[in-house]
Amino acid sequence: MNKTHSEEYINNSNLLDFTFKNLKYSIQTSKGTQEIIKGVDGIFPNSQVTAILGSSGAGKTTLLNILSKRIANSKKSQLEGEVLVNGKPYTADTFSTFANYVMQDDLLTETMTVRECLQFAVNLKNKGAKTNKNEIVNDVITQLKLEKCQNTQIGGQFVKGISGGERKRTSIGFELICDPQSLFLDEPTSGLDSFTAYILMDRLRNFAHKKNRTVVLTIHQPSADIWSMLDRIILMVDGKFIYQGEGGNSIQNYFSKQGFKCPVLTNPADYYMSIMDQEKKINQINCPIYYKNYDKLIKENVLSEIKFSSQVEFNPSTSQVPTYMQFYYIVKRTILIQTRSPILFKAKLGQVISLAIFLGLIYYQLPNGQDDPYNVVDVRNKNGFLFFLSTGAFLESMNAACLSIPIERQVFLREENSKLYKIFPYYFAKLFVDLIADFIIPIIFCAIAYWMIGLRNDISAFLFFVLVMIVLQFTGIAAGYFEGCLFKDPNLAFGVAQLIAMPFFPFSGYYKNSGDLASWISWVQYLSPFNYAYQAFVRNEYEETYFIPNPIQSENIEFTKWEAVGYLALMFLGYLILGFYFLYRSKKNLQ
Ligand SMILES: Nc1ncnc2c1ncn2[C@@H]1O[C@H](COP(=O)(O)OP(=O)(O)OP(=O)(O)O)[C@@H](O)[C@H]1O
């Protein structure tokens, strides 16, 4: 170790040393307590690539999760020990201000191309000129050998996309552009061919050395080339360290002296992995020797490295473009996603036009009562349509919105965690795009259905009708956001959304006259968005009518049309605030 003396850190507030002492982690299982991390001390120094190696189940990911504060004490798990960065404790929240964690799953927006993903990150992280940003993106694309696939969509369930290796490189390129002060990566090279893995490691090493960043990663089977690139190595067997220190000759000398000499022409990584393999009996016998030698020969040195690690107060990286720019870039991306997604965009437009024509034909030119003012069947048909609209328009918007948030959830959490943007611009940029769509769609629908059905022949009545439709659909979106922010799983969010909406049907005023509801339950009608929409529609339609009695009285419509639409707008705001609150909370449950 060459950078452990505190003097070297004076005036350099960007160098981060992670240290941990006597770290223990155990979980309660049906068979009793299982110790996963068994009292380890260590340091992840700045400007170096530290690799944690060990056989499957050794505890590598757990260690990374503890250091990144994804694991905490709970009823089923106990965590002990001290974890510090530059001598100070930190929390999950503060961790994300100075470090990014790339998990094994790559979380990228499926319908964007590789270049668009990287461009999105660079736009949000850099305030510089467009040409500079393009240069950064070009540089990452070249260095990570992504030229061939730069204009291919990432892909996923609906779109065929780039390969797994390209995905991983894009994901890491995305984080490199975010330029965190430290980067944790769980198995960044798994699933990559040796050449691609080498390129990736080379880029990470440059990132650590040239920018003085702290890079920590877990790795399974590094090639000899990659092995020689690792600055610091931690070997882990069954929750304990058997080596911690420099790579290269240092590790080889250390094990040679103990009688574990790496044979000539053998990849040292393969050799050390083989002596750690707990499936082999001989290793089980040797294990106590490894631990004993570690305690005797390495532990003191590590404790001294910890003691002399950087204690400098550092400034968390806050490089973000202003909120209005975050809003702009997220709107731009959301429009891109929506116009590319065959399900969300084209289907919605086709659905609304065909539904308008279909309903227009079913209810074609309903009488207005002039020829037959006592015809209750005509009134019933018209009210049936108004009720159908009150529920259908709301549900249609709610269903799409409640799926969209959980589908994007992991990508959002990752990007928010990478400090690309704040929750506020994300939520409102997404909402803004959905509102535009649900502003246009009711206009198209009403322009077709209103006149085909022959509702009140008055332009101001038509405009009010459109207004109610828009506010109703907006309320549906906000309700969908609320439910989508409440649940991680899209299917669960969808199912619960239906369950919540269902009880409001009988309280819409159509199935059962609102004046007839029992007093103990009649309050529910004031929570029903269908009720307000139905009241606004009915009032608007029969303000001037030939029907006797006027359906406004027979349907027991208690609000004026502006009151009804006003209450609907309040519901919209209420759902929005709740949605925002739950999205904010979900950030805390990153795991
Ligand atoms: N929440 C948990 N509940 C039960 N067992 C757990 C939990 N977390 C970790 N473990 C167990 O702890 C051990 C270490 O897991 P960890 O994922 O850290 O290993 P690893 O070294 O990263 O393995 P791999 O290389 O296969 O990813 C494993 O045996 C795992 O099954």
From TrEMBL:
<feature type="transmembrane region" description="Helical">
    <location>
        <begin position="492"/>
        <end position="511"/>
    </location>
</feature>
<feature type="transmembrane region" description="Helical">
    <location>
        <begin position="384"/>
        <end position="407"/>
    </location>
</feature>
<feature type="transmembrane region" description="Helical">
    <location>
        <begin position="428"/>
        <end position="453"/>
    </location>
</feature>
<dbReference type="Pfam" id="PF01061">
    <property type="entry name" value="ABC2_membrane"/>
</dbReference>
<keyword id="KW-0067">ATP-binding</keyword>
<keyword id="KW-1133">Transmembrane helix</keyword>
<protein>
    <submittedName>
        <fullName>ABC-2 family transporter protein</fullName>
    </submittedName>
</protein>
<dbReference type="GO" id="GO:0016020">
    <property type="term" value="C:membrane"/>
</dbReference>
<dbReference type="Pfam" id="PF19055">
    <property type="entry name" value="ABC2_membrane_7"/>
</dbReference>
<feature type="domain" description="ABC transporter">
    <location>
        <begin position="18"/>
        <end position="263"/>
    </location>
</feature>
<dbReference type="InterPro" id="IPR050352">
    <property type="entry name" value="ABCG_transporters"/>
</dbReference>
<feature type="transmembrane region" description="Helical">
    <location>
        <begin position="459"/>
        <end position="480"/>
    </location>
</feature>
<keyword id="KW-0812">Transmembrane</keyword>
<dbReference type="InterPro" id="IPR003593">
    <property type="entry name" value="AAA+_ATPase"/>
</dbReference>
<dbReference type="InterPro" id="IPR043926">
    <property type="entry name" value="ABCG_dom"/>
</dbReference>
<dbReference type="Pfam" id="PF00005">
    <property type="entry name" value="ABC_tran"/>
</dbReference>
<dbReference type="InterPro" id="IPR013525">
    <property type="entry name" value="ABC2_TM"/>
</dbReference>
<dbReference type="InterPro" id="IPR003439">
    <property type="entry name" value="ABC_transporter-like_ATP-bd"/>
</dbReference>
<feature type="transmembrane region" description="Helical">
    <location>
        <begin position="343"/>
        <end position="364"/>
    </location>
</feature>
<feature type="transmembrane region" description="Helical">
    <location>
        <begin position="564"/>
        <end position="584"/>
    </location>
</feature>
<dbReference type="GO" id="GO:0140359">
    <property type="term" value="F:ABC-type transporter activity"/>
</dbReference>
<keyword id="KW-0813">Transport</keyword>
<dbReference type="GO" id="GO:0005524">
    <property type="term" value="F:ATP binding"/>
</dbReference>
<dbReference type="GO" id="GO:0016887">
    <property type="term" value="F:ATP hydrolysis activity"/>
</dbReference>
<keyword id="KW-0472">Membrane</keyword>
<dbReference type="InterPro" id="IPR027417">
    <property type="entry name" value="P-loop_NTPase"/>
</dbReference>
<keyword id="KW-0547">Nucleotide-binding</keyword>
